[in-house]
Design a protein that fits this description.
Length: 130
């Protein structure tokens, strides 16, 4: 019970810190835009990512590792989409990186770790059957 209370308190502190930054940061011109973006992320997660992961997970044999990889890949995509789909040229002052390349590298790393985890789970399953 103490752990839940502690986690809840840390979560509330994070929400409070985020709200304070949202309302006091001079770079945020309209806090409502941020709230709309956050609501869209929640809808994307709950309306697209979770059902997709559940459907794919139900159809796949090695569910644990693959579900984990799908969740991480989906979350990476949800975080990267605003930068990847933004209209116009990128501001020079904001992290002048090749976002598409880095996103693909991150997804590749997730895929490699997912394959390794699924392979490890399959090996452990075979060893236990002996």
């Amino acid at each position: 019970m103490k752990g839940r209370v502690t986690i809840g308190a840390v979560g509330l502190a994070g929400i409070g810190t985020g709200a304070a930054i949202l309302l006091t940061d001079p770079n945020i011109r309209d806090p409502l835009d941020v709230v709309v973006w956050l609501a869209a992320v929640v809808l994307l997660h709950d309306g697209v990512l979770v059902p997709l992961v559940l459907l794919l997970g139900a159809a796949l044999r090695a569910r644990g590792a693959l579900r984990g990889g799908l969740i991480v890949g989906g979350c990476l995509t949800a975080v990267a989409l605003p930068v990847l789909l933004r209209p116009g040229p990128a501001p020079v002052s904001l992290l002048p990186l090749d976002y598409l390349r880095n996103w693909l590298i991150a997804l590749g790393a997730v895929a490699v770790v997912t394959v390794l985890a699924a392979g490890w789970a399959a090996l452990r399953s075979r060893w236990r059957q002996r």
